[in-house]
Amino acid sequence: MARYKHGDSFSTDFYKHISKPGLNKQVIKEISALKNEPEWMLEQRLKAYEIFKFKPMPSWGVDLSGIDFDQIRYYLRPTDNQVSSWQDVPPEVKETFDKLGIPEAEQKVLAGVKTQLDSEVVYGSLKNVWAKYGVEFLSMDEGLKKHEDLVKEYFGKVVPAADNKFSALNAAVWSGGSFVYVPPGVDVKLPLQAYFRINAQNSGQFERTLIIVDEGAKVHYVEGCFTVGTEIFTKRGIVAIEDVKVTDEVLTHTGKIKPVGHTQVRKYSGDLYQVRVTGSPHQIIEATAEHPFLVVKRKYKNERNKIWNPEWLAIKDVQKNDYACVPIDRTVEDSDSIEQTIMMGKGRAGFSPVKVKIPSTPELFRLIGYYLAEGSISSGHYLNFSFNSQEREYIEDVKKLLKLVFNEDKIRESHHKTNHGTSVVVSSIKLCRIFKQFGTSAASKRVPSWVMRASLEKQAPLILGWYRGDGNYYKKQLKYGLKEIFRVNTISKTLVHQMRQILLRLDIACGVNRRIRQHENRQTMFTLVIGGQYMVKFGEIVGKKIKSVLHGKKRATAYHLDVKYLYSPIRSIDKNQVSNIDVYNFSVQDDESYVADGVAVHNCTAPNFSASSLHSGVIEIFVKKGAQCQYTTVQNWYKNIYNLVTQRAYVEEEGKMVWTDFNMGSKATMKYPGFILAGQGAKGEVLSMALAGADQHQDTGAKAVHLAPHTSSTIISKSISKNGGRASYRGLVSIGPKAHHSKNTVVCDALLLDPASRSDTYPVDKVFNSQVEVQHEATVSKIGDDQLFYLMSRGITQETARKMIVNGFIEDLVKKLPLEYAVEMNRLIDHEMEGSIG
Amino acid sequence: MKKIILKKPGKHVIELKKPGEEVEVVGVFETKDKERVEVEVVIHHQAPRTLANTTLKGVARDSSSLKFMGLIIIDPDCGQSSSFLTERILLLSDQAHAETIPDLEILTDDVQCSHAASISNISEKHLFYLMSRGLSKKQAEKLIVDGFLKN
User: Fold this and answer.
1) Is residue A610 left, alpha or beta, with left meaning phi > 0 and alpha meaning psi from -120 to 50?
2) Contact check, Cβ <8 Å, B117/A765
3) How close A710 comes to chain B (CA, Å)?
4) Where are the beta strands (DSSP E) in A668-803?
């Protein structure tokens, strides 16, 4: 499907042929003229057209009899791919949209009912980053204009027009696609996301991509979509917004924890606001203009408000210095003892759950506080508390508490002269398994919800223990006045925000500062800062007397605190124009609100709907000496599409090419990512996953051609067939006479979900010299009844159990995807698996 | 279990028609000089609960060419069948050419099916080990080849 920039629309009256289906020389000439292409490109197109006419259809692989070349439109104008009304969109597409939680307005855009605006702005900012390193990331048309010499040199060199019928067709009528050039030695850390490039000038039916990675450079190109994590407070801790699930429970504006109703993403064009709030200046909240925030308007210019009545205002109506409301969860769920189930080993008898009862006392909470600051678990059975040797009082306190709470008296002390440290060590698997819930290392420290909701009498000692370990009192006369604050440092982002919530419950307002210490090669540190009038109360907890009056005046504060909220002034609001980015949202039971540090930008892998039936792209990649390239595709075409793509890479000395390929949509796919390992020591890898449902045939695989010595390649293919679908692996490994000491490994695993489905494996290994190792392995299996029985005996429904097994089957491949794709992938698999009980 | 030994190159079709039928197929081929040998084995499971174990082994010398084509077909409604196909070729010369094509076509789900193929040469380590015991290179090679074919 092709969507084009508005700016590219043109008067079509003049071009009579291209709006009609069918292909002839005139159409090709008009396409070329429209694009203002150089003469040689037109010549190539016409030559390719002659080859296309003469080449036979492939006699193997998928059934292609459904393609009628005379019925295809070879160049689509912006209006061609639009469906005239929402009613014309097939119900299956609508259903998938619903399942993925996309609102109707967004669904219409995706289905092509409305024309999409391009994402020029977002793309523009990234463009500067790339430009700095000389990386070119352009549409193929722009690439041809700007770098005609490069395109002329490389175009059609690794996938020549004569390669097969569809590469010839593509070479004749190509439009859209990307051009990427990475200069020598440049390591492009962020994956290049086709989403930005292609939405501006959408990947056509016949897109053409050319990637050149020069010597020693490195790049990862992703075809598909993109997300940015926004952190949401949920019961299971801070979670990125795109990971918020319907099963999650989140903190709402009333300070209660409520379940999520449904999640959604949508496209957005317009003003995007960036808000910074006092107390957490490092967190920029990004939101759309209409997104309501809970705020209190500032009434008096230089004073605090007298009346605090929060209201929901769209962010566009909010001003600097208005108060944003941070809800306080004041729920108390407390008991005298805590019952925990931990797994304990019984020698040869394996593990069994053991119930442990711990008295929930202020002493326990103080010990947890110490642990949060100074504790760690090593080797799974050593519980350590590391203090400075001078902190004798605290060392004794920890020992006393261990004895008191857990009746533990086998406590060892070890001294480290080099850093003047003293560790209190207990060797107890049981204790370690109990303390594991608070995190095992500094960065993973967190507290579970029973601690978050404990009574205030217990939370105060928790703060005390934590402060003793990691906190300090700071007082210094500076030029502008006296600086007096309490600070507590941690490198766990989750912990610092949880402790802030606990302090708010104790009526202590505080802020969080962040210090990035990357240049010192240290982890980012978060500091909880308590200042102003709240120091008095905090001082009471930690046993430091603070005068409430300073220089005859009450200590000042920027915050206001009441039972429900912390009101903190908005430091700054900026806005910029964006168009066509994706924003996230979800609904929450009763309150319809949530606590976020920002609203994410996200695109989804919803099926692309197009009335036309053939997609035939060509991707050519050149990996120069010592360079690396990874190309990732997630394909979820609509189920009437023939997806016939030729993708191949040419790898020089010591270069590396990785294809990651996920095929789920389309009616029939024929796609064999390949590489020619032409230089000594070149490496190639193909990771391919195919899911074939009803009436689908996924004929995928890989092609590895070894031409040089010491080359190696790995092909891993996983396929799933269900509801009568057919998944085939078709591979060719060819090791030439000069490619001595080369290695190749092929692993194909297939999973059949019902008796009607089909799985094939057609591997060909050709070897022309003796100094090689070539291996091929394939297995075909179904979901074992014993596996299902095991999971179902644990109370899991059959459908969930099947989903779990399928997700486990492809897990090692999904792991290779960038995180946001992996999440999307699992969600899509879950959706595809729904109702597939055989 | 019925044992079928393949002696001649060419196409062999083995059909498993009776439910519960079990078969073991073994073929050993050696090529030398300018020989061109192609062996094609089709194991066609047409009844449920059938079992087949297919092993093809070959040694290619000089400038000969050896090609193994194996195909397992399991028809629909042939549940609880198992089929295993192994193709191994030892290349003894740089001019020799080997090709393995182990295909699977599985049309039902309740089966166990796998195949494995490998092409390799005699490892230099193995040769060295035997030669360090006083064997000549020829003797060592012969010993390794015999072991490969018999195992």
Assistant:
1) beta
2) yes
3) 14
4) 668-671, 674-677, 683-692, 697-706, 712-721, 726-735, 742-752, 758-767, 772-782
pLDDT, one tens digit per residue, over A363-374 is 888 888 888 888
Longest dimension (CA), chain B: 58
Greatest mean pLDDT range, A292-296, A407-411, A598-602: A407-411
Q: Which of B106, B111, B145 to mutate to test the interface with A (most CBs of A within 10 A)?
A: B106
Contact across the interface for B106 and A777, Cβ inside 8 Å: no
- pTM (two decimals): 0.56
Residue pLDDT, tens place only, A715-774: 999 888 888 888 988 888 999 888 888 989 888 888 888 888 888 888 888 888 878 888
Q: Which residue among B94, B106, B116 sits closest to A770, beta carbon to beta carbon?
A: B94
DSSP state of A277: E
Mean pLDDT of chain A: 75
How far is it, in rounded angstroms, from Cα B4 to Cα B10?
15
Q: If you count them, how many residues does chain A have?
A: 838
Question: Can you tell me the distance from the alpha carbon of A640 to that of A62, in angstroms, rounded to the nearest whole number?
Answer: 14
Q: Is the pLDDT of residue A309 over 60?
A: yes
pLDDT exceeds 70 at position A76: no
pLDDT at residue A711, as a whole number: 93
Q: What is the pLDDT of residues A511-557, one digit of tens each?
A: 888 887 777 777 788 888 888 888 888 888 888 888 777 777 777 77
Query: Which tokens in the block code for residue A116?
Result: 């999409």
Which DSSP letter does residue A596 get? B
Count CA atoms closer than 13 A to A651's CA, side-chain side. Answer: 33
Residue keyed to tokens 């086709």: A194
Residue in A463, A483, A465 with CA at minimum distance from that of residue A474:
A483
For A777, which residue in chain B has the nearest alpha carbon?
B116
What are A739's strand-pairing partners?
A: none
Read off the pLDDT of residues A803-832 as tens digits, 9 standing for 90 and up. 888 888 888 778 777 665 676 667 777 777
Query: Average pLDDT for residues A614-630, to the nearest whole number?
Result: 88
What separation in angstroms does the CA of A30 have from each of A72, A74, A75? 16, 11, 10
> Which of A530, A543, A564, A403 has its CA nearest to residue A465?
A543
A251 neighbors A233 (Cβ within 8 angstroms): yes
Element (H, E) at B57: strand B51-60
DSSP, residue by residue, B88-139: EEEE-STT-EEEEEEEEEE--SSEEEEEEEEEEE--HHHHHHHHTTT--HHH
Q: Using the beta-carbon criterion (under 8 Å), do A775 and B79 form an inter-chain contact?
A: no
Cβ–Cβ gap A772/B120 under 8 Å = yes
Closest alpha carbon within chain A to B111: A781
Those residues of chain B whose CB sits closer than 8 Å to some CB in chain A are 76-77, 79, 89, 91-94, 96-121
Q: End-to-end distance of chain B based on CA atoms, in angstroms?
A: 19
- Separation CA A196–CA A189 (nearest Å): 16
Contacts of B100 in chain A (CB under 8 A): 763-765, 774, 776
What is the pLDDT at residue A555?
77
> Which of A144-158, A464-478, A812-826, B71-85 is predicted with the least confidence, judged by mean pLDDT?
A812-826
User: Is the torsion defined by CA of A297, A299, A303, A307 positive or negative?
Assistant: negative
A719 phi/psi in degrees, rounded to 5 = -135, 150
Rg (CA), chain B: 17
Q: pLDDT confidence of A255, banded at 50, 70, 90?
A: low
* Residues in Cβ contact with A327 at an 8 Å cutoff, skipping those fewer than 6 apart: A251, A252, A253, A254, A255, A294, A564, A565, A595
ipTM value, please give it.
0.77
pLDDT band of residue A606 (cuts 50, 70, 90) is very low
| A629 DSSP β-pair partners | A219, A657
By the CB < 8 Å criterion, does A767 face chain B? yes
